[in-house]
User: Fold this.
Amino acid sequence: MNTSIDAPAPTAWGRIATDGIWNNNVVFAQSLALCPLLAVTGTATNGLGMGLASMAVMVASGLLISLLRGLITPEVRIPVFVLIIAVLVTLVDLGLNAWLHDLHKVLGLFIPLIVTNCAILGRAESFASRNRVMPAAFDGLMMGVGFTLVLVTLGAIREIIGSGTLFANAALLLGEGFAGLELTLIPEYRGFLLAVLPPGGFLALGFMLAAKRLIDRRLRAPRPATQPAVATG
Amino acid sequence: MSTVTVPSYRKRIGYQAGLLGGFTLIAAALLVIGDIATRDTIALREAEDLQASLSEVIPLALHDNDLLADPITLEGPDGAPLAIYRARRGTEITGLAFRVRGRGYAGPIDLLLGLDASGQILGTRVLSHSETPGLGDKMERSKSDWILVFEGLSLDHPPLERWAVRKDGGDFDQFTGATITPRAILSALREGLVFFAKHRDTLTASAVIQVEIPDAEVLEAAASEVSEVSESTESSAAR
Assistant:
């Protein structure tokens, strides 16, 4: 946390993006949103649906809370944020059910779970309430992208190990055009139940967190080594 | 971020309470508007869903009426009111469908059971469940063909005691790794068939609604029949 994000300079936009997707990722760095994460990532398709729905709510809540930040006092901010997020989620749920009913049948399970996503409240508190509207919406988008990537990856790992398929039922979520996305990687696979059940989610998440740390260490390692080399030369 | 000087009125409890109250009011208003704007459409969509499920358990060729038009309500096996959708060709009842519920591994399993007038299963489909994905969800039509084995069966075919999974000495395959789910479905279907057998006369009695206006003779006969029936019910009530 060495640079502050007061003005949306070009570097700040880039920082919001890298923070959202990698450095300050909702799951990897903040360890938030684990309830919806573990509940829905039985398949990559479910992960994608949950990720997209959460992303939409994150952008909208970032926008609204940033707009209203001059009005809301610190003392009552948390109930007001909770209220705004809950209303948004309920309206999205009703609207989808009425006008995009087929999509709602697939996503309907996930939408109420978005309320349990404390990452949305976390971003409202730590970013949207302190920044201008556009950066706040962009932060919501990038946090959503980061969350979606984790959901899809975790869903894919559990789906491949657990049932030998990838993106099963993707056509239900994305439309018939995406039927080609549905792969059966291991034909005649008997299935490995543990991966599909919640314990499998915790195990896979543990391995993913470890992998993220390893990658971070690799990325950081060369830097101290190059500096002495420059100094001697 | 630098600390912005907050106007003093904002620190008062009245402002805080007013702010929270105002937001709650706006939120409630938005939810009411949202509910009003979507309620009818959602009801319509749900009716379409039910129509689609009904058409899966009662073949189109079997009826010429709108299944959703006049359901009758009876006390179901669990004591709660149960809506029964009847398929008719002309005035003759050719089939009917109603919801049955089994207790699955992770919660209730709701099924729609379609029967013909003789009590044979025309088809059955799972409407909702919360079974383990990849394990207990093989009863969904989109996941496997398992649910189709019930077509053409009835309460005495196979005999009642064989309406169970193989593990319990019955005739039906459980799926690998899941016995509780098929057991729940079987008991739900069995319950539905018993319910039908119990109320068969009420359920398959020719519809009272007649589309064409009948001749005077028929009307008279029907009227006398009705009075007979009401007399008999009166006398039975007196008894």
Observations:
- The mean pLDDT of chain B is 81.
- DSSP finds four helices and five strands in chain B.
